[in-house]
Write a structure and sequence with these properties.
The structure is a homodimer of 144-residue chains. The first copy, chain A, is mostly helical and 144 residues long. The first copy, chain A, contains six helices and two strands. Chain A has a single domain, classed as Orthogonal Bundle (Arc Repressor Mutant, subunit A). The model of chain A has no long low-confidence stretch (mean pLDDT 96).
DNA sequence: TCCCGTTGCAACCTTTGCTGTTACGACTGC
DNA sequence: GCAGTCGTAACAGCAAAGGTTGCAACGGGA
C-alpha cells in the first residue's frame, strides 16, 4: 500500500497549533509548523486548507496572519481529520472492469464492495475514538 | 490514500481457482485468471507468487502446469491474503524526520505509532473474520 | 498611502509505487 | 525434442504525493 502520511502530518499540525495557543499565542504560521514538521510551508498550507474546508481550523491574512483552531482539541477526532484529508476508499476495486461474462468477474466487485464497507465502518469507529486532545497528551508524554 | 487493488485482485484470483477446482479441474492457469480479471497474466503470476510464499497456493510447472489452492477456502481469511500482498503499515509517518528539538516534533511519531498500532490491530481482526469461502459465496450470490 | 508579512493558489518537477508489457530461461509431461 | 506454462527480469506508462518557486491578495501599522 502506498502508505500515506497525510493523516500523520495533519495531526502534527493540529497538535502544534493547539499547544502554541495554550502557550498564549493567537495564531501559528505555516512557516513555524513547517519547521517543526521538517517540510515546506506550502505543503502545510495545502493541508491546513483542507482542514479549514472541514471547519477544523481558521486562517487570518494580512499582518499578524496565521492559523488558529476553530474548535477545541477535545471535540476533534482523528475521524474528522481523516475525512478531511483522505478522499478515497481504503481498498480499491480493479483498475479495469473484470470480464462480466465470467461468474467471478461479474460477482467479485459487489462482493468485495460489501465486505469493504463493513471494514471501513469499523475503521471509522476506531478513528472516532481518538481525539486530538488524546494525541497531544501522548505527544507530551513521550519520554526524554 | 493511494488506493490499492492488490487485495481485491488476490481475492478474485483465489475465488476463481477455488470455483474452478470445485468444477473438477486440477489447476488453473494465470492466463485464465487474467482473462477473468481483465489484466495481464504476468500481473497474476506476480501476485500468486506472493500468495505461494505465504502458503496459500501452489504452482506446478511443465505441461499441464498451473495453480491450485494449498488449503481450503474456509481456512483462508482476508487477513492471510492482506498480509501476503500488503507489506507496509496502513498509515505512514512523516517522510522526513520532524524537528527533534521541538516538543511536538519529538513526541508526534511515538504518539501516532501507538495509536496506529491499535487501529491496525482492529483492522486485522476485521479482516480475519472474513474467509475466502465467504467471499466466494458473496460472489455467487450476486443477482443477475 | 505605502510597506511588510502572511495566506491562497497555480504551475511545475521529482520521487515513488503499481500496473502493464515484452522477453526469455526453466521446468516437465508427452 | 517439443509444447505449454511458470518464474522473473527489465522497462515503459501512469497516477498520486510531496517539494519548490513565483506571485497576487489581503490587511494591519507606519
Amino acid at each position: 500500500m502506498s502508505a500515506n502520511s497525510r493523516l500523520t502530518l495533519a495531526a502534527h499540525a493540529l497538535a502544534w497549533i493547539g499547544l502554541y495557543q495554550r502557550q498564549g499565542h493567537e495564531v501559528a504560521t505555516s512557516e513555524q509548523i513547517a519547521t517543526s514538521a521538517n517540510t515546506n510551508p506550502v505543503v502545510i498550507r495545502r493541508l491546513l486548507g483542507e482542514l479549514r474546508r472541514a471547519g477544523l481550523v481558521e486562517s487570518r491574512r494580512g499582518v499578524g496572519a496565521g492559523w488558529s483552531l476553530a474548535r477545541e482539541l477535545e471535540s476533534m477526532t482523528l475521524l474528522d481529520v481523516y475525512e478531511a484529508v483522505e478522499p478515497g476508499p481504503l481498498f480499491a476495486m480493479h483498475r479495469t472492469t473484470p470480464d462480466q461474462g465470467c461468474v467471478v468477474g461479474y460477482g467479485i466487485q459487489p462482493a468485495m464492495q460489501g465486505i469493504y464497507e463493513g471494514i471501513e465502518e469499523t475503521l471509522r469507529h476506531e478513528l472516532a475514538r481518538v481525539t486530538l486532545e488524546n494525541v497531544l497528551r501522548d505527544v507530551l508524554a513521550a519520554p526524554r
